[in-house]
Write a structure and sequence with these properties.
Order of helices and strands: HHHHHHH
Oligomer: single chain
Shape: elongated
Largest sheet: none
Length: 130
């Protein structure tokens, strides 16, 4: 995947880089809005087959004494994304991290958009024809 991206950047240069940065910016903005609106991004990523954001599959008890507390039904359905935002320093940081994980999704989008956009810009004489 990274090899095809390098090939694209060699062939299309600034147009390829601009498309990739635009796709990344749109991805970060969309993820940020979703996180700020309390969407459980982790469960959405699980549905599309991407790995979990958290490496720890077992829920750790936050009770420092170690006593077992029966979870209430509300605790079982909590939003893990909201917990990550609270513990990791903010929605923007989480959006950037998720965007990084979505690199395999962004590259094909960049590969699909760049050639037609470069042809369009070349027809309008906005870039040199290659």
């Amino acid at each position: 995947m990274a090899g095809r991206m390098k090939e694209l950047l060699k062939k299309y240069g600034k147009v390829g880089l601009g498309v990739h940065l635009s796709v990344s910016a749109a991805s970060i903005a969309g993820l940020y809005v979703a996180i700020k609106n309390n969407v459980d991004v982790e469960s959405m990523l699980e549905r599309v087959g991407l790995p979990n954001l958290s490496k720890d599959k077992n829920t750790q008890s936050s009770n420092p004494i170690g006593d077992e507390i029966d979870p209430t039904p509300g605790d079982l359905q909590r939003n893990k994304t909201a917990e990550m935002v609270a513990s990791s320093g903010g929605a923007l940081a989480l959006a950037v991290l998720i965007n990084k994980a979505l690199f395999p999704v962004r590259v094909p989008i960049t590969l699909a958009i760049t050639p037609p956009l470069a042809r369009f810009l070349a027809r309008r004489n906005l870039i040199k024809k290659s």
